[in-house]
Design brief:
It is a single chain. By secondary structure, this protein is α/β, with parallel strands linked by helices. It is built from 15 helices and 13 strands. The relative contact order is 0.12.
């Protein structure tokens, strides 16, 4: 396949952009079907005239179908979409980019989804699907029976898209609540994921960022919470989001003077309550009954999930702060992470790209 990709790039480079554009159309329709042409044009930032010619071609090939409700991907279209995924990754040089990050960040596996989730919601959902597929693969390989998950939109997408039959598995929230909307809270995501996996679940009814004194009092008085916390801290697999330090500090309602201090001290990334600078050094840690950064070395497999160019420095900071066995991100974030490391290492370009 690599030789075919290189030949296509050299002999018919104009075909690469066309193939990727049609792939994006199929992927977007697949995620939002049925969808109208005007809405689809807006999602993909294409003119309706350009889009019309492409969707008419895809319909003529039997890959799209029209109805009064909108466009949908046919069964053949779904098969083509799955087959195209790896080819598009190679066309865009994502395999080389994955290898570059894998080596520089000492990560066992890197999965990069084409696109930028800052600009396309479908990419965030694709990252969630990749996380779901990765987790199911680990469970099928008997890599763990206790799964801890964090909150957020990408993990919510993973929970919605995961399927399996693992009655011996227990899904738990990685940490206490952040005051998110219900659908994005770790407790809710753990529940949805467990139901879709036909697994059991436990919930942690302790708010995030409570004082150590209050936390100790809760743990001393409530045996049920102690049991849940013990299960969480002995998780075999952790699937967690990676956030920007400034966004997460405001999300956790930290005092403004503390937020200002964090940013002045160089905090750019946050995961499981730890705020880290670009070198991976801890700047600040919030209290919580669930997992904390010092617990992660005891977790069997850690899966970090985040996308969007805006999160690149956060991803780099967290990857350096603690072990990440698997990183699932998108093209825009990965390119920016690689660009930052290029500058640090004095490289002219990313090898292979």
């Amino acid at each position: 396949m690599d030789n075919l990709v290189n030949l296509q790039k050299k002999i018919v480079p104009e075909m690469t952009d066309l193939l990727i554009e049609r792939y994006r159309i199929l992927r977007q329709v697949s995620n939002e079907q049925p969808i109208g042409r005007r809405a689809l044009a807006g999602r993909l930032n294409l003119s309706e005239r350009v889009l019309r010619s492409q969707v008419d071609f895809l319909k003529g090939c039997g890959l799209l179908s029209y109805s009064t409700a909108g466009m949908s991907v046919t069964e053949e279209g779904n098969e083509i979409l799955q087959e195209l995924a790896e080819y598009v990754r190679k066309l865009q040089g994502l395999s080389s980019l994955e290898q570059f990050l894998l080596e520089r960040l000492s990560i066992k596996k890197v999965i990069i989804i084409p696109g930028d989730s800052d600009r396309e919601q479908v990419v965030k959902r694709e990252i969630g699907r990749a996380a779901a597929h990765t987790l199911v693969s680990l469970l099928e390989e008997d890599k763990g029976r206790v799964v801890a998950v964090s909150g957020g939109t990408t993990l919510a997408a993973a929970a919605q898209n995961i399927r399996g039959n693992f009655p011996d598995v227990v899904v738990v929230p990685a940490r206490g609540g952040l005051g998110d909307t219900l659908e994005l809270q770790a407790n809710t995501i753990a529940t949805v994921m467990a139901r879709n996996l036909k697994a059991s679940y436990r919930q942690l009814y302790v708010p995030d960022s409570v004082s150590q004194e209050i936390l100790n009092s809760i743990l001393a008085e409530d045996a049920g919470i102690r049991a849940v916390v013990n299960t969480i801290k002995h998780a075999d697999i952790l699937v967690h989001g990676i956030g920007r330090a400034d966004v997460m500090a405001r999300h956790r309602h930290l005092p403004q003077p503390l937020i200002d201090r964090l940013l002045q001290e160089g905090a750019v990334g946050e995961a499981v309550g730890q705020y880290s600078d670009i070198k991976g050094c801890q700047v600040y840690m919030t209290n919580n009954a669930g997992l904390m950064m010092h617990d992660l070395p005891h977790i069997g497999t850690i899966i970090g999930v985040a996308g969007g160019k805006s999160k690149a420095r956060a991803i780099l900071a967290v990857s350096r702060a603690t072990r990440q066995d698997i990183l699932i991100t998108d093209e825009a974030a990965a390119m920016e992470v690689a660009s930052v490391m290029e500058k640090e290492e004095g490289l002219d370009r990313i090898p292979g790209l």
